Amino acid sequence: MKIAVCVKQVPDSWAEKKLRDGDSLLDRDSVEAVLNELDEYAIEEALQITEAQGGGEVVIVTMGPERAGEAVRKALSMGADSGIHLVDAGLAGSDAAATSYALAKLLEGRGFDLIMFGSESTDARMSVVPSMVAERLGLPQLTFANKVEVSGGTVTIDRVGDNGIETISAATPAVLGMIERSNEPRYPSFKGIMAAKKKPVETVSAADAGIDMSAVGSAGSWSQVNSFAARPPKAAGVVVQDEGAGGVAIAEFLDAQKVL
Amino acid sequence: MDVLVMIVAAIVTVIAVGLFVRTVVGFVRQFRVGKSINRTDKPAVRTLTLLKEVFLATRLKQKPVGPIVAASHLIVLIAFGVLFFTLVTAYGQLVNPDFALPLIGHWPPFSYLIEILSWLMVLAILILIGVRVTRRPNPQEPRKSRFFGSTMWQAYYVEITILAIGIFVIALRAAEYARGSVQGEEFINSNFPLTGWIGQNWTGLSLEALATLIMLLAFGKILVSMAWFVTVAMTPTMGVAWHRFLAFFNVWFQRNANGKPALGQLEPIRYDGVALDFEKLDDFPDDIALGVTAMTDFSWKALLDFSTCTECGRCQSQCPAWNTEKPLSPKLFTIAMRNHAHAISPWMTATEEERANLDPALIELAEKPLVGDDGVIADDILWSCTTCGACVNQCPVDIAHIDHIVDIRRSQVLVQSEFPTELNGLFKNVENKGNPWGMNASGRNDWISEVDFDVKVFGMNGEDTIPEDIDYLFWVGCAGAYEDRAKRTTKNVAELMNIAGVSFMVLGEGETCTGDPARRAGNEFLFQMQAAQNIEVLNEIKATKIVVTCPHCLNALKREYPQLGGNYEVVHHTELLNDLVKAGRLTPVNKIDQTVTYHDPCYLGRHNQVYNPPRELIGATADSFVEMDRNRDKSFCCGAGGARMWMEEKLGTRINQTRGDEAIATGAKRIAVGCPFCSVMLNDAVNTRQQEEGRAVGVEVVDVSTLLLNAAKS
Ligand SMILES: Cc1cc2nc3c(=O)[nH]c(=O)nc-3n(C[C@@H](O)[C@H](O)[C@H](O)COP(=O)(O)OP(=O)(O)OC[C@H]3O[C@@H](n4cnc5c(N)ncnc54)[C@H](O)[C@@H]3O)c2cc1C
Ligand code: SF4
Ligand code: SF4
Fold it and tell me: Which of A247-256, B245-254, B261-270 is least confident?
C-alpha cells in the first residue's frame, strides 16, 4: 500500500503570530517553525497501517518554502520512507482553494492508495484542504477520522462529528483527514533521525507539477485580504465575589450574555 | 600413607591452581571486551583511596549495617591474607611434622600475630554467619531482607570455609605445641600464647601419633583451601568469593579518584571510549551504537563492577523502588548483568569468525536482548529507577549502578524507541516548548507580576552581558516558573534576596529546560540540545555566579554542563540564604513555634552533598527540629527523580507516600524541603493522609525559604 501524507510546516502554535504589513501574509520568519501537530497523527496512522500490513510506502508531501523541508525531515525521522517537496516562490500567499489545487496537481497520477491529512493546520485552521483535494481528485473523502481500518480495497473509519460517531467506509484510493485522538504519535528515535538524513526528498517546482501559475499565489487566489487589524486586548473580566448569592450573579451574567 | 597424602595434596593443588588461573584469565579477557574508559588518573590518590576504603572501612561501616559488621569483615579480610602463611606451613608439615617457616616460623611476634588473627577470625566469621542467618529472608516478608535474591549457599560456603580454616590453624598449632612439648623444645614457651592450653591436653600422645595428627590436620586444611579454590574457579559468578580479589581493583578504578561516590553528573555517552558531541551529528557513522544495547557495549569498568558485586544487598536495603514493591533492586540488576555476562563470556571474547562456530544455544543466549519481556531484565526494572543514588552511595565496592542503568536507557530511547509512553510527552514538551509541562515560554515571567518589587530581566535595558553590579543570575527553572508551589519558592527567594540587598537578574524567556529529565530518561540527544542552547546563552552573557532553587537545575548547571563547556559557580538557594543569615544580612526575628522536619532531596544531598545549610536555616527559623529516621545521605527518595516525575507509578506502593508517612510520623507540623519535585510529591502524600479522618492534621509541606521568609518578615 502506497500512502501519501500531506504535511504543513506552521509557526509554533504558542508563539505570537503577526501579519506582515506589506502583503498581509503571516510573518513566518520571526517565529520557530514546527511540523503541524495534527499532521503527526496522520503520519503515525500511515506508519501503523504499513507496519500492520508488513510493508508499503509512506511518502511525505508538502507545499511550502525551502524551510518547510525541515518538517519533511522530521516526518521522515518518525519512519516515513521518502518526501516530495513543492517549492515555488509563485505559490506564496495561496488560499485554501489554491493550495488544494496545487496539492492535487502534485499528487495526481502518483498511484497513492491513501492520501492522508491532518484535520486542520494550527496556523490558518481552515480545515478544508483535505476535502478540497478529494474533490479535485474525484476521490472519496473520509474526514475527521479517528479509528482507521484497511482491508483489501476498503478503508473504514470512525468519523467523529458534532452529532456523534459514524462508521463510514470507501473504496481506495481515498482521502483521509485525521483527528488528534486517533493515536499517540511516536517520538523519533535517534536512529530514525540519522536514517532520515539519507532518505530521498524530491523537490518539485510548480512547473514540474504542471501547475497553472495564474491559479495560485496571492494573485491567483480567489480570496484576497483587503485589510486587517490587531485583535483588541482582552477586556477585564467580571469578578463575582461570592457572598452567598454567587450562583445568582453567575446566572444573571450568563443570561445577559444570552448563554442561558 | 605419607606418600599417598603428599601425592593427593599435590594433584589437588595443581588442579585447583590451574583452574583458578584459567578463570582469572577468563575474567581479564571478558573485561577487555568492554569499551574503553579512562580510570587511571591520579594513581597516588587512587591508591590512598583504596587503602582508606580497605583499612578504615570508610564505605563498609556506613549505616544501616554498621561498625560491628565492618570490623568483623576487616578482621576476616586481613586474617584471610595473613593466614596464607599457615597454608604454606601446612605443605611443609606434610613432609615434615616439625616444619616451620624459615626465620619467622618460631619468631614470637609472628606467632602472636597468627594466633591472635586466627582466634579473631573465628570470632568474626561467627558474627558474620550470625548476621547472615538472622537477617536471611523470612517467609512472611522475604523482600525486607537485604539478602533476598542473594545466593545464600555461596555465602555460607565461603563463611564455613573461613571458619574451618580458622579451626584448622588453631588445631594445628595446638598439635605443634604438643609435639614440641613432648620433644622438650624451648620455643613452645614463647610461641603459643592462645593455643598452648589446648595442646597441653594432647601431650600424653606419642610423638608418632602427634606427627600423624599434624599431617592429617595439614592435609585437611589444604583440602579445604583447595576445594574453595576449585569451587570459586568453577563459579565465576560467585561474587561473594571473587570480590575478595576483584574489589581491590574495582575500588581503585572507581569513577572519582578521591573516593567520592559516582553521583552528581552522569558519565557522558561514549562511542569507542570518546564522549560524543551531538553537535557533530553529521560526522557520526550511520550505524553508531548509542548507549548499551548488548553486553559488549558496556565499558570494561561496568563489566568489572558486575563481577565484583558481593551480593551484600546494602544497595537493595536502601532502594526506594525495591522498598515499595517494585521489581527493581540494584543488587538483582547487578547480579542479572553479571550472570548474563558470564553465561555468554565465551561468545563475548570470541572473534566474529569464531562466534559463528559456537554452540547454537550459546549464540541464541548471546542474542537475547538486555531489556524486555524476553530480555535479561524486564522493562519495569529499567524504568523503576529514580536515580536517587542511595545504592551508589551505599555500595562497599563502589559499583556505579546509575551509570549502567542510564546507559541502557540511552539505547532504549535513542536506538530502540522502547520506553514508557509518558516520556513521549516529556520529550516533546522539552524539545518544542523548552519545559516539561509544555507551557509557553512567555509564561516564564508570570511570577514577576505577582511580586511588589522590581525584578531585573536580562535584556530589558539592552544589556548584552550581565552587568557588573549584579551578584547572581537567578536561574528560575521550569518548575520555579510554571508550577504553583515552586513559583512560591521563586517569589520567596527573590524577595529574600531583595531584602538582603543581593542584586540579581533573571533570564526570563531566555531560559529553557536544563535537560535533566531528558538525560535521566536516557535521551542524551535532547539533553545535549538543551544544554548546548543554555551554555551558549550563559557563556555569551558571561554568567559566572548562578543561584537556583531546583536541585536538578543545580546538578545540571554545576556538574553536567562542565562536560560540555559550561563552567559556572552555582549555589542552591538554601546555601545562599544560609550565608546571608550568617552574615547578618537576613535576620529571622520571629521563630516559628512548631516542630519542623527536613527531607533531603536526593539531588541536593547525595548528589551534591548539601546537607547542613538547610538544617542551619531551619535551626535559625524554628524552635524545634526533628530528624526522620532516614536522613542525610541515607535519605529516602520522594519518587520523582530519574524522570519518574513524568511517568505513572503503576507498580507496588507509592514511594512518595512511604516518605510522606515517615515525615508525618515524626510529629512535625512542617515538613521542609528544598526541591520543587519533592515538594509536590510530599504534599500529595500529606494530602492523601489528610483526606483520611484525623490524619496529619495541620501538617504542611513547605520550602525552607518559606520558613525563613515568615521568620524574617513577621
Ligand atoms: C491572514 C490570513 C488570511 C487568510 N485568508 C484566507 C481566505 O480568505 N481564504 C482562504 O481560503 N484561505 C485563507 N487563508 C488560509 C490559507 O492561506 C491557508 O494557509 C491555506 O489555504 C492552507 O489551509 P490551512 O492551513 O487552513 O489548511 P487546513 O485545511 O486547516 O489543513 C488541513 C490539512 O491540509 C494539509 N495541508 C495544508 N496546507 C498544506 C500544504 N501547504 N502542504 C501540504 N499539506 C497541506 C495538512 O495535512 C493539514 O493538516 C488565510 C491565511 C491567513 C494567514
Ligand atoms: S538509584 Fe535509587 S532507585 Fe535507582 S536503583 Fe539505586 S537505589 Fe534504587
Ligand atoms: S551492588 Fe554493591 S551494595 Fe549492592 S549487593 Fe552488590 S556489592 Fe552489595
Answer: A247-256
Q: B67-82 vs B43-55: helix axis angle to the nearest 10?
A: 110
- Chain A, nearest residue to B443 by Cα: A14
Would you call B414 and A189 a contact, using CB atoms and an 8 Å cutoff? yes
Instruction: Compute the residue count for chain B.
Output: 714
Average pLDDT for residues B511-518, to the nearest whole number? Answer: 97
C-alpha–C-alpha distance, residues B481 and B494, integer Å? 12
- Could you tell me the pLDDT band of residue B1, with boundaries at 50, 70 and 90? low
Contact B432/A34, CB-based, under 8 Å?
Answer: yes
Beta-bridge partner residues of A241: none
pLDDT tens-digit readout, B572-588: 999 999 999 999 999 99
A13 touches chain B (CB under 8 A): no
Identify the nearest ligand to the CA of B307 by its number: 3
Cross-chain residue pair A184–B421, CB shorter than 8 Å: yes
Q: Does B284 sit within 8 Å of A194, measured CB to CB? A: yes
Q: Considering only alpha carbons, which residue of chain B is nearest residue A40?
A: B428
Q: Considering only CA atoms, which of A55, A37, A1 is closest in space to residue A183?
A: A37
Q: How many whole angstroms from B306 Cα to the centroid of ligand 3?
A: 9
Q: Using alpha carbons only, what angle is made at residue B332 by residues B327 and B333, rounded to the nearest 5 degrees?
A: 85
CA B303, CA B28: separation in Å to the nearest integer?
10
Judged by DSSP in three states, B623 sits in strand
**Pocket around ligand 2: residues whose beta carbon is below 6 Å from it?**
B 318-321, 328, 330, 385-391, 401-402
Backbone angles phi, psi at B191, to 5 degrees: -120, -5
**CA torsion, points B447, B451, B456, B458, in degrees to nearest 10?**
10
Instruction: Enter the pTM of the model.
Output: 0.89
Is the pLDDT at B610 greater than 80? The verdict is yes
Q: Which is the closest atom of ligand 2 to the Cα of B387? A: 1
Say how many residues make up chain A.
260
Say yes or no for a CB contact (<8 Å) between B424 and A186: yes
Best CA proximity match to B36, nearest among B249, B296, B243, B367 = B296
- Cα of A23 to ligand 1 centre, how many Å? 16
User: What is the whole-number distance in angstroms between the Cα of residue A98 and the centre of ligand 1?
Assistant: 9
Across the interface, which of A12, A187, A190 has its CB nearest the CB of B415?
Answer: A190
The answer to whether residues B608 and B559 touch, using CB atoms and an 8 Å cutoff, is yes
Per-residue 3-state assignment (H helix, E strand, C coil) for B674-701: CCHHHHHHHHHHHHHHHCCCCCCCCCEE
- Give me the phi and psi of A31, to 5 degrees please: -120, 160
Pick from A116, A120, A119, A39: nearest CA to A78: A39
Nearest 10 degrees: CA dihedral of B430, B436, B437, B441?
-50
Instruction: Please check whether residue A14 touches B, CB under 8 A.
Output: yes
ipTM: 0.74
Ligand 3 pocket, B312 CB below 6 A? Answer: yes
